[in-house]
Write a structure and sequence with these properties.
Length: 285
């Protein structure tokens, strides 16, 4: 690609939940059209999600994105080609498991390219919500932690290969989010999760030094883009690193956790063509 072409081409990173797809996992028609038009205009579009790749619905992947950043920046793929992958260290997994046991935190999961490893408490939560987690397109990717066979003399941390964790406590935990963030800091960076409605202490456990922001920089570098030509669009605290790293940042109209404060502009709500309007404002379509 000639240098002059590259300067006009943008590399766009789009969060899924609350940004591309709504609370019912539906992508507005206006967003589908905007994404296709932006690509036709020579821009590259990457999903950038906290979810592990096995948790991204086929109907989203079928929209034809140029690439996928998954597990909160720990992995990036272009089709079946792996650009990079970072794994949680065995010691970090074992430290978190000991912490969960000590503080009676029963609902947690570990996520990676192999799937989702869930606690019995998290399984009960899914079933209470009527989630058919063990059927359908994702069934083969769900594993119960109680059923993982850990070889004699080894630990869970050395047995599973994952890139992030997430957890939520009961309604009256003995530790706050800030406590947990501090206590697990040697092993993880904690950001607020998406379970505020059911738990005062819930979060995502990210590999220290790896997040959606490092992914933006690394993908741009690998594809030959300047960070100035990157755009990030998100709606919550777990998009903060991506929004701060990108050359241009956009908050959705339905954004939470105050992220609008450091974004370049705020578009409309997801149900009011937020993504399509952002693309128009940015000159992508």
């Amino acid at each position: 690609m000639a240098e002059s072409d590259m300067t006009s081409s943008k590399l766009v990173f789009i969060d899924i939940d609350g940004t591309l797809a709504d609370e019912n996992h539906i992508v507005p028609e206006s967003a589908k059209t905007a994404c296709a038009r932006a690509q036709a205009n020579g821009h590259k579009l990457f999903i950038c999600t906290g979810r592990s790749a096995p948790k991204i619905e086929r109907n989203i992947l079928d929209l034809g994105f140029d690439g996928v950043v998954s597990v909160a920046g720990a992995q990036a793929n272009i089709g079946s080609e792996l650009l990079f992958q970072h794994l949680v260290s065995p010691e970090a997994i074992d430290a978190a498991m000991a912490y969960f046991a000590e503080h009676h935190i029963e609902s947690y999961q570990w996520q990676g390219a192999d799937g989702m490893y869930i606690s019995e408490g998290y399984r009960r939560h899914l079933e209470s919500k009527g989630k058919t987690w063990n059927r359908g397109e994702f069934a083969r990717f769900w594993h119960l932690l109680d059923e993982v066979e850990v070889p004699a003399g080894s630990t869970l941390g050395h047995t599973i290969h994952v890139s992030k964790g997430s957890y939520f406590t009961g309604p009256e935990p003995d530790v706050s989010f800030e406590d947990t963030q501090h206590d697990l800091a040697p092993w993880f960076e904690l950001v607020h999760g998406s379970y505020d409605k059911i738990s005062p202490n819930n979060g995502e456990l990210l590999i220290n030094g790896i997040d959606k922001g490092t992914a933006v920089r690394d993908v741009a570098s690998l594809l030959g883009y300047s960070v100035a030509d990157t755009i990030a669009i998100g709606d919550s605290d777990n998009d903060t690193a991506m929004l701060k790293a990108a050359g241009t940042s956009v908050a959705m109209g339905n954004a939470i956790h105050g992220i609008q404060a450091f974004c370049d502009f705020t578009t409309t709500d997801i149900h009011q063509d937020g993504l399509a309007n952002a693309f128009k404002t940015l000159g992508l379509v």
